[in-house]
């Protein structure tokens, strides 16, 4: 059977964060080599799991190389990036010769030495395997796709759902393209189109318009003759790089002109409705007031400015401060606060504590708040999610975790590792019944919906300040393209 390498390097890099991502961040989340890649990812609902299942389904031998993943955070340290990528290249060289290479990247990875880190990775991998070996790439929906990524791969497949619930399917799609390429059934060629367009993070729910319309266009293009795959990347404007913004990608069988025409058609249709992708959110005080007055519960307040899945700190106190100021009772929030965890562990279960909590990473996310309560629970922070959720993770580890209850019936969860809120098991594993709370403060935008929609009476996106604030004009960009709509309202698009 044909031998196909399996590799991954996934990190969403928020360049506006002051703290760099290190090798240790990858080791804490997931860093595997050789056969450990299969042990870690086989059966997972992730694209790497899709690659491995595709090998069984389509009849090729998977050759595990290396897979590195870190929770979204700041720019990757130059030394850490070089070390990790060099290790991947060394592991790849050990497996040669290969018939093909399947690679899972994020598409919004930035290192100190390479703004287009994903493009640099595939450039180095291509140099090792040579021009004759097909490389098929998968990317996150929030990729800032570069020409270098496309030039060094034969085909690229991007997630089609946000929350990301189709990761395994996209891995299977990539494996299918690889199998057909290796047997000579197809000769994939691809085309990339990048209009000067930013899509607001609040408008990226693919189950609703306007984002839904983009993926209806994808399905339309997939019916065209010779088209093998079509994708939209909504971009990631928390990474200040030249490629930042939306992009449209089509893979065709031999007919590059067909791929170009299809990519441009999708881009032009998005550009025609560009005003629909500008976001307007509810300010914090109004959001808390509306939630408090609602007769339904729980109301989920999405803390957009502290979106952990976008690299933010996870310790913003902006909404919790409003809850306390307005005298609201029965709210819940999860805060990344190792210092508070240590103090609660020292105090012990059932004992009273007086704590200054949150807002310790930087000055972007409020101020520490003084709270009093009792330690209800101390946990190892490990939980398992068996359902398909954003991120494709099964086993999760938020580090030593404590639960504190206050006299106002607030439930405060403190973790020693940052954890995107993609799973209700994050709370259920701690004995918390989230459906019994009045307000749930959730540090995300769209990704947590897969977990929280089943219990939420209403989900409200809140325009909180922070390193993932919704309005892109809040940030000072130094490397992006000019012009970009809506940052420049007079931007024009010529295919």
How does the SSE layout of this entry go?
Layout: E1 3-10, H1 23-29, E2 30-33, H2 35-41, H3 47-58, E3 61-69, H4 78-95, E4 100-105, H5 117-129, E5 135-139, H6 147-151, E6 155-158, H7 167-182, E7 188-193, H8 211-221, E8 227-233, E9 247-253, H9 256-272, H10 284-293, E10 299-303, H11 318-325, E11 331-336, H12 338-347, E12 352-357, E13 369-379, E14 382-384, E15 395-397, E16 401-406, E17 411-415, H13 425-428, E18 439-442, H14 449-452, E19 458-462
Parallel strand pairs: 1-3, 1-4, 4-5, 5-6, 10-18, 10-19, 11-17, 11-18
Antiparallel strand pairs: 2-3, 7-9, 8-9, 12-13, 13-16, 14-15, 16-17
Helix pairs in contact: 3-7, 4-5, 8-9
Strands in their spatial order, largest beta sheet: 12-13-16-17-11-18-10-19
Q: What's the N-to-C terminus distance?
A: 42 Å
Q: Please give the count of helices.
A: 14
What is the 3D shape?
A: globular
Low-confidence stretches: none
Fraction of residues in helices?
25-40%
Largest sheet: 8 strands, mixed
What average pLDDT do the residues reach? 96
Strand content is: 15-25%
Q: How many individual β-strands?
A: 19
> Which structural class matches the secondary elements?
alpha/beta
Estimated radius of gyration: 22 Å
Features:
495 residues; alpha/beta; 6-stranded mixed β-sheet; 29% helix
Task: Describe the overall structure.
- The chain is α/β, with parallel strands linked by helices.
- It has 14 helices and 19 strands.
- Strand 4, helix 5 (117-129) and strand 5 form a beta-alpha-beta unit.
- Helix 3 (47-58) runs parallel beside helix 7 (167-182), helix 4 packs parallel to helix 5 (117-129) and helix 8 runs antiparallel to helix 9.
- The longest helix is centred in the first third of the chain and has 18 residues, at 78-95.
- The protein is globular.
- The model has no long low-confidence stretch (mean pLDDT 96).
